[in-house]
């Protein structure tokens, strides 16, 4: 998964002066063309997640292709190649997130095949992973990774129980039958 959140020199997510702690500014950008995403459904899912977690946020979610993800990975983390999700913290506090995440939909597709789930469920998992990083969870050492993974799986189960998919209707976002190897739940 992603590495520790890294601050960026400039914040593309707008700061809203006087925003109340529970308010949400959500910026969604789909800059990949391989898998059609219903941004309205993704927005609803992220807003519902933030509400269920009791969080306000100024959050940017960028869906990108593997080449753009590789550029971000190299430029900000010094790692070669694409990765699934990278989180940038722009000053989150306990009850209010301020950051952004870059999600490689192509990596979500590959991981979905490996774990027997759907690519759209993987994208939601990556959003949850990013939110947890912005809340202060870490996955660098094994003990912290286990704690974060428990929280991630808890919220993934919550998201899976919500109706709908972020895959654009008619595009075959769901993969058949096999349970997710991490949660034991069927898509």
Report the major sheet.
Answer: 4 strands, mixed
Assign the CATH superfamily. Metalloproteases ("zincins"), catalytic domain
* Low-confidence segments: 7-11, 174-179
Give the tally of β-strands.
4
User: What is the rounded Rg?
Assistant: 15 Å
SS strand fraction: 15-25%
Number of helices: 5
Overall geometry: globular
Show the helix and strand layout:
Blueprint: E1 24-30, H1 39-53, E2 56-64, H2 66-77, E3 85-89, E4 96-104, H3 105-115, H4 119-134, H5 142-160
Parallel strand pairs: 1-2, 2-4
Antiparallel strand pairs: 3-4
Helix pairs in contact: 3-4, 4-5
Characterization of this structure:
By secondary structure, the chain is of the alpha/beta class. It has one domain (24-160): 3-Layer(aba) Sandwich (Collagenase (Catalytic Domain)). Helices cover 39% and strands 16% of the residues. The protein has helices at residues 39-53, 66-77, 105-115, 119-134, 142-160; strands at residues 24-30, 56-64, 85-89, 96-104. A four-stranded mixed beta sheet has the order 1-2-4-3. A hairpin with a 6-residue loop joins strand 3 (85-89) and strand 4 (96-104). Helix 4 packs across helix 5. The longest helix has 19 residues, at 142-160. It is globular. Residues 7-11 and 174-179 have low confidence and may be disordered.
Key traits:
187 residues; alpha/beta; Collagenase (Catalytic Domain); four-stranded mixed β-sheet; globular
Give a quick rundown of the structure.
The chain has helices spanning 39-53, 66-77, 105-115, 119-134, 142-160, and strands spanning 24-30, 56-64, 85-89, 96-104. With 187 residues, the chain is α/β, with parallel strands linked by helices.
């Amino acid at each position: 998964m992603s590495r520790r959140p890294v601050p960026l020199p400039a914040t593309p997510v707008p700061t809203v002066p006087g925003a109340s702690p529970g308010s949400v500014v959500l910026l969604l950008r789909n800059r990949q063309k391989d898998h059609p995403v219903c941004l309205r459904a993704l927005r609803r899912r992220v807003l519902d997640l933030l509400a269920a977690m009791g969080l306000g946020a100024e959050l940017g979610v960028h869906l990108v292709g593997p080449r753009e993800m590789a550029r971000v990975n190299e430029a900000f983390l010094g790692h070669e190649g694409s990765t699934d999700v990278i989180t940038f913290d722009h000053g989150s506090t306990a009850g209010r997130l301020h950051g952004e995440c870059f999600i490689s939909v192509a990596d979500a597709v590959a991981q979905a095949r490996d774990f027997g789930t759907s690519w759209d469920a993987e994208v939601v998992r990556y959003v949850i992973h990013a939110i947890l990083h912005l809340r202060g969870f870490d996955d660098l050492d094994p003990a912290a990774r286990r704690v974060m993974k428990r929280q991630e799986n808890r919220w993934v189960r919550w998201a899976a129980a919500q109706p709908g998919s972020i895959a654009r209707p008619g595009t075959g976002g769901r993969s058949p039958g096999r349970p997710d190897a991490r949660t034991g739940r069927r898509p």
